[in-house]
Amino acid sequence: QVQLVESGGGLVQAGVSLRLSCLASGRTFSNAAMGWFRQAPGKEREFVAAISWSDSNTYYPDSVKGRFTISRDKAKNTVYLQMNTLKPEDTAVYYCAAAIGRVGTLPTTLNGYSAWGQGTQVTVSS
């Protein structure tokens, strides 16, 4: 049973940085892709970043490219999302997700992932 637990969210002012963490447990993730999504009130959940657990290959949508960085620490079984120069429109619940068995691919859609965390709230004030 895969378990993903996010942490690091909070209320911050625009322009600052924040780092989210996702502690993964329950199995080996050597053949997994890991992703971050976010969902703002009244909006659909959207893709934010993905990383290959094995080779750290990454992918971002244009909306966050250059501001957000996804990384992983194999020893700690943790995936991070470093968010810089935060904007009010980054306000959302951020979710960590795992795509087990997706070696060589970085899914960008919800149905590409089979396990989800409970989410952590990020609120950016102007």
Description:
With 126 residues, this protein is mainly beta. It is built from no helices and eleven strands. It has strands at residues 3-7, 10-13, 18-25, 32-39, 46-52, 58-59, 68-73, 78-83, 92-100, 115-116, 120-125. Strands 2, 4, 5, 6, 9, 10 and 11 form a seven-stranded mixed beta sheet that branches. The protein has a four-stranded antiparallel beta sheet with strand order 1-3-8-7, with no helix packed on it. The radius of gyration is 13 Å and the shape is globular. The model has no long low-confidence stretch (mean pLDDT 95).
Q: What is the helix content?
A: under 10%
- Beta-strand percent range: over 45%
Overall residue-averaged pLDDT value:
95
Q: How many DSSP helices?
A: 0
Pattern of helices and strands: EEEEEEEEEEE
Which class best fits the helix and strand makeup?
Answer: mainly beta
Shape: globular
C-alpha-based Rg, rounded = 13 Å
So what's the oligomer here?
single chain
| Uncertain residue segments | none
Count every beta strand, where a strand is a DSSP E run of 2 or more residues.
11
Give the biggest sheet: 7 strands, mixed
N-to-C terminal Cα separation, in Å? 40 Å
